[in-house]
Write a structure and sequence with these properties.
Elements (H helix, E strand, L loop, with lengths): L13 H15 L6 E3 L1 H6 L2 H10 L4 E4 L2 H9 L5 E7 L5 H6 L2 E5 L2 H14 L4 E4 L3
Parallel strand pairs: 1-2, 2-3, 3-4, 4-5
Helix pairs in contact: 1-3
Length: 132
């Protein structure tokens, strides 16, 4: 059997990402905050690199899918606000609070869990309430 080798490659143009962020920001104006969604490794573009690029261009808000992605950004030195889009879980509460991640909550019990955990740490829980 003969082997086939793919010749595909992908080139990520961080200058284009920076340019696109600035265009979007210019279009919506200074009163509107633009959130860069960098979940799933920034859709294959490199989460840390894309996050650093848009933050350097003025972006103050990032979104990730799970707390682990937010923690990775914090470990890489990213200081922007980070929203975790996926449902928060009790097991991730302390890590989210320690890393200043805004947790999306769907259930009142999770709000209480985050509040209790934050209180025990002497910190404030950051939450985003999703309503259907």
């Amino acid at each position: 059997m003969s082997q086939l080798y793919r010749q595909n490659r992908i080139l990520i143009d961080l200058d284009a990402i920076r340019h696109n962020y600035r265009l979007m920001k210019q279009r919506v104006g200074d009163a509107v905050r633009v959130m860069a969604v960098v979940k799933a490794n920034a859709y294959g573009h490199g989460m840390v690199e894309v996050a650093r690029t848009v933050v350097a261009a003025g972006c103050t808000d990032l979104a990730v899918a799970i707390p682990e992605e937010g923690i990775l950004l914090r470990e890489a030195g990213v200081e922007a606000d980070i929203l975790v889009l996926g449902a928060s879980t009790p097991v991730a509460a302390q890590a989210a609070i320690d890393n200043r991640l805004t947790q999306t909550v769907f259930e009142p019990d999770m709000i209480a869990t985050l509040q209790e955990t934050a209180s025990s740490l002497g910190k404030t829980a950051l939450i985003h309430i999703k309503l259907d």
